[in-house]
Amino acid sequence: MGYVLELHQMAEKMTSRGFFDARNSEEYGFYSIDLRYTKTFHPSYTVYLIFNSFTAYVLGLLGFPVDADRFLLTVYLNIFDSNGDLVQSFKKSDSFVQTAGFYYGHNPTKKAAKVYSKLFKELFEEANLQSRDINYVLQAAGPVKPEKIAPARTKITTFKL
Predict the structure, then answer these.
(1) Residue 1's pLDDT band (boundaries 50, 70, 90)?
(2) In this structure, is the dihedral angle defined by the CA atoms of residues 134, 6, 97 and 41, taken in order, positive or negative?
(3) Which of 53, 81, 127, 146 could be a cystine partner for 141, CB 3.0 to 4.6 Å?
(4) Spans of all domains in the chain
């Protein structure tokens, strides 16, 4: 829950700093955040397997890792104008290795939360650097009006990276 709250606070800071032009309380666009990950075996897994098989898993009983996976995390920030057209797309990726043993599990949640937080900070910093150009495009498309919301949401939900 804390991770979702942190993401929400970062997004609010981004919009309140003038990233989206909100004069007269009008909104000029939409944004979406997409999180993805892939999990692969880490090469050290075979090393752990060989050592443990030669020692009849005694090393595993002493706390030596018996498994390792590499996680590649990717974050996308997509900014759309009031018509639902893509204005700018940002992407950041990073990876980490999570090991597991007999006495400790293979739960990558804490490491993933740290990496995602770092990626979000980098992503929002990059978006803020380009905020002037993005604001020009958002202003050119005009503010979000009630009649534009449904068609814009349809375009946004069908958007593929």
Answers:
(1) very low
(2) negative
(3) 81
(4) 2-157
